[in-house]
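Hey L., structure's done. Input below.
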Amino acid sequence: REMILGMGPAAITLVATCVAAMLLSLMPDATLFVAAMLLGVVASATGLRLRRPAWALVAVVAVIAVGQIARHSIDVRRMRPEWYRAGEDRAFAEVARWADAHTPPDARFITPPWLEGWRCLSRRGTLVQYRDGSAMHWEVGFEAGWWERLRALNCAVYYRESGLAPELQRRYLALTPAELASAAKRFDIDGYVVMPTTWPHGQDLVAAHANVGYRAFAIDELRHAAEH
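Output:
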Protein backbone atom coordinates (compact mmCIF):
# COMPACT_ATOMS: atom_id res chain seq x y z
CA ARG A 1 0.00 0.00 0.00
CA GLU A 2 2.79 2.41 0.92
CA MET A 3 4.55 1.63 -2.35
CA ILE A 4 1.40 2.40 -4.37
CA LEU A 5 0.67 5.62 -2.52
CA GLY A 6 4.27 6.68 -2.91
CA MET A 7 4.08 6.39 -6.68
CA GLY A 8 1.91 9.48 -7.06
CA PRO A 9 -1.25 10.01 -9.16
CA ALA A 10 0.49 10.15 -12.53
CA ALA A 11 2.48 6.97 -11.96
CA ILE A 12 -0.61 5.13 -10.76
CA THR A 13 -2.43 6.33 -13.88
CA LEU A 14 0.47 5.10 -16.02
CA VAL A 15 0.38 1.62 -14.52
CA ALA A 16 -3.42 1.39 -14.64
CA THR A 17 -3.43 2.46 -18.29
CA CYS A 18 -0.88 -0.21 -19.22
CA VAL A 19 -2.90 -2.91 -17.46
CA ALA A 20 -6.13 -1.75 -19.13
CA ALA A 21 -4.46 -1.74 -22.55
CA MET A 22 -3.26 -5.32 -22.08
CA LEU A 23 -6.73 -6.49 -21.04
CA LEU A 24 -8.44 -4.66 -23.89
CA SER A 25 -6.03 -6.15 -26.41
CA LEU A 26 -7.79 -9.48 -25.79
CA MET A 27 -11.11 -8.09 -27.00
CA PRO A 28 -12.16 -8.42 -30.68
CA ASP A 29 -11.94 -5.30 -32.85
CA ALA A 30 -10.12 -3.39 -30.13
CA THR A 31 -7.05 -2.35 -32.12
CA LEU A 32 -7.82 1.37 -32.31
CA PHE A 33 -8.93 1.51 -28.72
CA VAL A 34 -5.75 -0.18 -27.49
CA ALA A 35 -3.69 2.19 -29.63
CA ALA A 36 -5.45 5.09 -27.95
CA MET A 37 -4.70 3.61 -24.56
CA LEU A 38 -1.02 3.25 -25.41
CA LEU A 39 -0.92 6.85 -26.58
CA GLY A 40 -2.44 7.66 -23.23
CA VAL A 41 0.50 5.90 -21.60
CA VAL A 42 2.88 8.20 -23.46
CA ALA A 43 0.81 11.23 -22.45
CA SER A 44 0.76 10.07 -18.84
CA ALA A 45 4.51 9.50 -18.81
CA THR A 46 5.04 12.98 -20.22
CA GLY A 47 2.87 14.46 -17.50
CA LEU A 48 4.83 12.51 -14.91
CA ARG A 49 8.11 13.92 -16.16
CA LEU A 50 6.67 17.44 -16.15
CA ARG A 51 5.32 16.90 -12.63
CA ARG A 52 1.78 17.70 -13.79
CA PRO A 53 -0.32 14.67 -12.78
CA ALA A 54 -3.63 16.39 -13.49
CA TRP A 55 -2.61 17.14 -17.08
CA ALA A 56 -1.51 13.53 -17.50
CA LEU A 57 -4.94 12.29 -16.45
CA VAL A 58 -6.69 14.75 -18.78
CA ALA A 59 -4.47 13.61 -21.65
CA VAL A 60 -5.31 9.94 -21.04
CA VAL A 61 -9.06 10.60 -21.01
CA ALA A 62 -8.87 12.78 -24.13
CA VAL A 63 -6.84 10.25 -26.10
CA ILE A 64 -9.18 7.39 -25.14
CA ALA A 65 -12.20 9.46 -26.20
CA VAL A 66 -10.62 10.22 -29.58
CA GLY A 67 -9.80 6.54 -30.00
CA GLN A 68 -13.38 5.54 -29.31
CA ILE A 69 -14.69 8.02 -31.88
CA ALA A 70 -12.21 6.75 -34.46
CA ARG A 71 -13.10 3.16 -33.68
CA HIS A 72 -16.80 3.65 -34.37
CA SER A 73 -16.77 6.18 -37.19
CA ILE A 74 -14.71 9.08 -38.42
CA ASP A 75 -18.00 10.80 -39.25
CA VAL A 76 -19.48 11.49 -35.82
CA ARG A 77 -22.89 12.14 -37.38
CA ARG A 78 -23.11 8.47 -38.41
CA MET A 79 -22.10 6.98 -35.08
CA ARG A 80 -24.41 4.27 -33.83
CA PRO A 81 -24.89 2.82 -30.33
CA GLU A 82 -23.27 -0.48 -31.26
CA TRP A 83 -23.06 -1.56 -27.64
CA TYR A 84 -26.34 -3.37 -28.31
CA ARG A 85 -24.90 -6.09 -30.44
CA ALA A 86 -26.07 -9.44 -31.75
CA GLY A 87 -23.74 -11.37 -29.47
CA GLU A 88 -20.71 -12.86 -31.21
CA ASP A 89 -22.60 -13.69 -34.41
CA ARG A 90 -20.44 -11.70 -36.82
CA ALA A 91 -22.21 -13.11 -39.88
CA PHE A 92 -25.53 -11.74 -38.65
CA ALA A 93 -23.92 -8.36 -37.91
CA GLU A 94 -22.48 -8.34 -41.45
CA VAL A 95 -25.94 -8.86 -42.98
CA ALA A 96 -27.18 -5.97 -40.84
CA ARG A 97 -24.40 -3.72 -42.16
CA TRP A 98 -25.31 -4.72 -45.70
CA ALA A 99 -28.94 -3.80 -45.04
CA ASP A 100 -27.88 -0.43 -43.66
CA ALA A 101 -25.78 0.32 -46.74
CA HIS A 102 -27.94 -1.12 -49.53
CA THR A 103 -31.62 -0.92 -48.60
CA PRO A 104 -34.02 2.03 -48.15
CA PRO A 105 -34.22 3.42 -44.60
CA ASP A 106 -37.88 2.40 -44.34
CA ALA A 107 -37.31 -1.18 -45.53
CA ARG A 108 -38.67 -3.82 -43.17
CA PHE A 109 -37.23 -7.28 -42.69
CA ILE A 110 -38.06 -10.66 -41.28
CA THR A 111 -35.10 -11.88 -39.24
CA PRO A 112 -34.44 -14.90 -37.02
CA PRO A 113 -36.45 -14.12 -33.87
CA TRP A 114 -33.93 -15.63 -31.46
CA LEU A 115 -31.26 -13.13 -32.57
CA GLU A 116 -31.10 -9.63 -31.12
CA GLY A 117 -29.68 -6.30 -32.21
CA TRP A 118 -30.99 -6.14 -35.77
CA ARG A 119 -32.74 -2.77 -35.39
CA CYS A 120 -29.67 -1.14 -33.89
CA LEU A 121 -27.07 -2.66 -36.21
CA SER A 122 -29.02 -2.24 -39.46
CA ARG A 123 -31.18 0.76 -38.57
CA ARG A 124 -34.00 -1.14 -40.27
CA GLY A 125 -37.21 -2.59 -38.89
CA THR A 126 -37.84 -6.28 -38.31
CA LEU A 127 -41.12 -8.14 -37.84
CA VAL A 128 -40.34 -9.51 -34.40
CA GLN A 129 -37.62 -10.51 -31.98
CA TYR A 130 -38.43 -12.89 -29.16
CA ARG A 131 -37.09 -10.42 -26.59
CA ASP A 132 -39.62 -7.84 -27.81
CA GLY A 133 -42.07 -9.60 -25.51
CA SER A 134 -40.47 -7.84 -22.53
CA ALA A 135 -42.56 -4.79 -23.43
CA MET A 136 -45.66 -6.55 -22.14
CA HIS A 137 -44.51 -5.67 -18.62
CA TRP A 138 -45.11 -1.96 -19.17
CA GLU A 139 -47.56 -1.83 -22.08
CA VAL A 140 -50.86 -3.59 -21.46
CA GLY A 141 -51.95 -5.68 -24.44
CA PHE A 142 -48.57 -5.65 -26.19
CA GLU A 143 -48.23 -9.40 -25.85
CA ALA A 144 -51.16 -10.07 -28.21
CA GLY A 145 -49.51 -8.49 -31.25
CA TRP A 146 -46.11 -9.90 -30.31
CA TRP A 147 -47.54 -13.42 -30.05
CA GLU A 148 -49.32 -13.11 -33.40
CA ARG A 149 -46.06 -12.12 -35.09
CA LEU A 150 -44.28 -15.08 -33.55
CA ARG A 151 -47.15 -17.34 -34.61
CA ALA A 152 -46.83 -16.10 -38.20
CA LEU A 153 -43.22 -17.33 -38.14
CA ASN A 154 -44.12 -20.66 -36.54
CA CYS A 155 -42.24 -19.47 -33.43
CA ALA A 156 -45.00 -19.04 -30.84
CA VAL A 157 -43.10 -20.84 -28.08
CA TYR A 158 -43.50 -20.15 -24.37
CA TYR A 159 -40.37 -18.95 -22.63
CA ARG A 160 -38.19 -21.47 -20.85
CA GLU A 161 -34.76 -21.26 -19.26
CA SER A 162 -33.05 -23.74 -21.58
CA GLY A 163 -33.59 -24.98 -25.10
CA LEU A 164 -35.54 -21.93 -26.29
CA ALA A 165 -33.14 -20.80 -29.03
CA PRO A 166 -32.74 -24.29 -30.58
CA GLU A 167 -36.52 -24.72 -30.65
CA LEU A 168 -37.00 -21.32 -32.31
CA GLN A 169 -34.32 -22.19 -34.85
CA ARG A 170 -35.96 -25.53 -35.65
CA ARG A 171 -39.35 -23.91 -36.19
CA TYR A 172 -37.99 -20.97 -38.21
CA LEU A 173 -36.00 -23.23 -40.53
CA ALA A 174 -39.15 -25.30 -41.16
CA LEU A 175 -40.89 -22.32 -42.80
CA THR A 176 -41.58 -22.53 -46.53
CA PRO A 177 -41.26 -19.64 -49.02
CA ALA A 178 -45.07 -19.55 -49.21
CA GLU A 179 -45.40 -19.20 -45.43
CA LEU A 180 -42.81 -16.43 -45.32
CA ALA A 181 -44.46 -14.60 -48.22
CA SER A 182 -47.80 -14.89 -46.43
CA ALA A 183 -46.37 -13.45 -43.20
CA ALA A 184 -44.76 -10.62 -45.15
CA LYS A 185 -48.05 -9.76 -46.84
CA ARG A 186 -50.01 -9.91 -43.60
CA PHE A 187 -47.67 -7.57 -41.72
CA ASP A 188 -46.71 -5.35 -44.65
CA ILE A 189 -43.07 -6.43 -44.82
CA ASP A 190 -41.67 -5.06 -48.07
CA GLY A 191 -37.95 -5.70 -47.73
CA TYR A 192 -36.15 -8.98 -47.22
CA VAL A 193 -36.14 -12.18 -45.22
CA VAL A 194 -32.91 -13.18 -43.49
CA MET A 195 -32.47 -16.94 -43.17
CA PRO A 196 -29.60 -19.10 -41.93
CA THR A 197 -27.65 -20.80 -44.70
CA THR A 198 -28.97 -24.12 -43.38
CA TRP A 199 -32.51 -23.25 -44.52
CA PRO A 200 -33.36 -26.15 -46.88
CA HIS A 201 -35.36 -24.02 -49.33
CA GLY A 202 -32.59 -21.47 -49.71
CA GLN A 203 -30.64 -23.55 -52.20
CA ASP A 204 -33.35 -23.07 -54.82
CA LEU A 205 -33.65 -19.29 -54.42
CA VAL A 206 -31.56 -16.33 -55.54
CA ALA A 207 -30.20 -14.41 -52.56
CA ALA A 208 -29.82 -10.64 -52.63
CA HIS A 209 -26.94 -11.00 -50.20
CA ALA A 210 -25.17 -13.94 -48.59
CA ASN A 211 -22.29 -14.75 -46.30
CA VAL A 212 -21.05 -17.81 -44.42
CA GLY A 213 -23.96 -17.80 -41.97
CA TYR A 214 -26.99 -16.12 -43.55
CA ARG A 215 -28.78 -15.28 -46.78
CA ALA A 216 -31.11 -12.35 -47.41
CA PHE A 217 -33.95 -13.01 -49.86
CA ALA A 218 -36.14 -10.33 -51.38
CA ILE A 219 -39.84 -10.72 -50.59
CA ASP A 220 -40.57 -10.77 -54.32
CA GLU A 221 -38.23 -13.74 -54.72
CA LEU A 222 -40.18 -15.66 -52.08
CA ARG A 223 -43.50 -14.76 -53.69
CA HIS A 224 -42.26 -15.98 -57.05
CA ALA A 225 -41.11 -19.25 -55.51
CA ALA A 226 -44.44 -19.67 -53.72
CA GLU A 227 -46.36 -19.23 -56.97
CA HIS A 228 -44.30 -21.80 -58.81
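The longest strand covers residues 192-196. Residues 53-72 form the longest helix (20 residues).

-- N.
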